[in-house]
Amino acid sequence: MEQFENVTIVKKANVYFDGKVTSRAVLFPNGEKKTLGIMMPGEYEFGTSEKEIMEILAGDLEVQFPGDDSWIHITGGQSFEVPANASFKLKIKELTDYCCSYIK
Hints:
Blueprint: E1 8-9, E2 14-16, E3 21-27, E4 33-39, E5 42-47, E6 51-64, E7 72-75, E8 79-82, E9 87-103
GO molecular function, one term: uridine phosphorylase activity
EC number: 2.4.2.1, 2.4.2.2
Protein name: Pyrimidine/purine nucleoside phosphorylase
């Protein structure tokens, strides 16, 4: 999907890691929520409360999933899923543009 139709955008940004990761919430009429954001190069750890699907629109990163010591390489055009109530680590290699979908 190239664009979202008939949505509400929350103006206030979500800002993490001293501004190195930012996003804006996109709210859909059916109650679905997504965030659109940018991650600057660095290493980050995130926690989830809901299942998330991270679609990487552009960029280069590695992800480490809960309970796994290995790192998986992800680039623009790929996506990955993170379970609810978990934490995952990211190594962002270059500016990364992403869309995160929250699954209830």
